Amino acid sequence: MSQRKSYAELNTELRARFPNGVAPGGVSVDDIIQLRLQNSFDTHLDIARDMASVMRADMAAYDADSSKFTQSLGCWSGFHAQQMIKAVKRLRGTTKGSYVYLSGWMVAGLRNRFGHLPDQSMHEKTAVADLIEEIYVSLRQADEVAINDLFKDLKAAREKDDAAAEAKAIAAIDSFETHVVPIIADIDAGFGNEHATYLLAKELIKAGACCLQIENQVSDAKQCGHQDGKVTVPREDFIEKLRACRLAFEELGVEDGVIVARTDSLGAGLTQKVPVSAHPGDLASDYIKWLKTEPITNDNPIRDGELALYQNGTFVRPLRLPNGLFPFKDGTGKARVIEDCIANLTLGGADLLWIETDTPNVDEIASMVNDIRKAVPNAKLTYNNSPSFNWTLNLRKQVRAQWIAEGKIKDADYPGDNALMGAAFDDTELGREADDRLKRFQTDISARAGVFHNLITLPTFHLTAKSVDELSRGYFGEDKMLAYVATVQREEIRRNVSAVKHQHEVGSDLGDSFKEMVAGERALKAGGHANTMNQFAAE
């Protein structure tokens, strides 16, 4: 990761150029230092290079200690990402271990000029790159606002001739930790052939993405991982797209770029084509062996226009649907996932795996990862803690099944199926145990199933819907202004959420500082005594 120069280094460097402390035009050296430190990345490609190194260091730390897993939330705007990282920084005092996830689902559903559309690669290719750019603009602005505040403290200390306060302010400036964190960017199934994937990957990387997540579905038939009708591509086809992503990273000098290879094979029962096998045991033969077939006999002969495969010493007919797609044998998803993952790591050069599952089950993921790690001992995963799962119902069902098997309860003690979702079970022993497992879920899956990165794909979609509904019900109902004050503003103030001072949050003080730099006492500033943001001054 690139090293930012310290205040002292910049001060020495600039005063060597401008001994009287003033640059041509009357620009103060102190102001130049501030602007240099606020602008810690020259380009977003520099961000990609630095954040790739951050991810690699985090992956090495996880290999040594599985409790050091990383997390992210999916964000559909720069402001969402900025507020998430600010919240993490308030909570932990650092952004380390926290990333931003950029979901193709949310781009399709919320950032699409064609309207709100499903996760089927129907959004513009450039929309993902545009959102990466936007997120990093927002995170960098958070840096600028925060560093500007630190320089205001430095200026105040100097005006009071307080050497101790001045030293403290400079130390705070030099130890400042950026809000810029890695982005894991969803490139769907590549939006076309391998060349199209390469071209789009370059745009995402130039926008700042240090990590690309790509899935093994057919591009023009792509479905959300939690929908039916998923169609996978042969493994050699997917490996070519992994190579395309790697070449994009290498061309742009992002040598530590991270690729997440996602397999949808657990829920995908179809393939679009039958690959050509050159010899037994190659990628094609290992893919073809899972096709659903039927024997060719005198009573069931081959007909014009049909395909035949020679398997295990005999000819068989692969089943084919009216749309030309080929179904896999039932119950083969887990075996196909394991083979996919091994091929993606060993032949495709992927760094992380993503296994899309239909329920949140630690045992299920762990069993697959254990088999993968027989071939690749340090295999690591990114796991989707998806809002498509009914977490309450799934975890309660898992507890109920386990307790019945252990003889702790009987079938009749707790109802089965969807009845367990009821609020009446929230404060029962089973409900509390399920909630305890929810708290431990990410820790457990990281320890037992090789999950390096835990993410939630669509949280800000659901949070926005819930929060706006909550405010609207009160504001347009009986509570009127109390609804806003009680549900939003008081909580912002009491939690020290910086956005409560919304003018400051979007850079009004930053603008005032710049006006002072160029206009001095003539500066027309927004932050005077009449600014209502003063009502939110810290006590």
Can you summarize this structure?
The chain has about 550 residues and is α/β, with parallel strands linked by helices.
Describe this structure in words.
The protein is about 50% helix and about 10% strand. The strands form four sheets. An eight-stranded parallel β-barrel has the order 3-4-5-6-8-14-15-16, surrounded by eight helices. The two termini are about 40 Å apart.
Keywords:
539 residues, alpha/beta, 3-stranded mixed beta sheet, 16 strands, 11% strand
Shape: globular
Judged by helices, strands and strand pairing, the structural class is alpha/beta
Mean pLDDT: 91
How many beta strands in the DSSP annotation?
A: 16
Strand order of the largest sheet: 3-4-5-6-8-14-15-16
How big is the Rg?
28 Å
Task: Describe the protein's topology.
Blueprint: H1 7-17, E1 22-23, E2 27-28, H2 29-38, H3 44-64, E3 70-74, H4 78-92, E4 98-102, H5 104-110, H6 125-159, H7 163-174, E5 183-186, H8 194-207, E6 211-215, E7 231-232, H9 235-251, E8 258-263, E9 270-271, H10 283-288, E10 293-295, E11 309-311, E12 314-318, E13 326-327, H11 333-346, E14 352-355, H12 362-375, E15 381-384, H13 391-405, H14 429-448, E16 451-456, H15 459-475, H16 481-495, H17 502-505, H18 508-519
Parallel strand pairs: 3-4, 3-16, 4-5, 5-6, 6-8, 7-9, 8-14, 14-15, 15-16
Antiparallel strand pairs: 1-2, 9-13, 10-12, 11-12
Helix pairs in contact: 1-2, 2-6, 4-6, 6-7, 6-8, 8-9, 11-12, 12-14, 13-14, 15-16
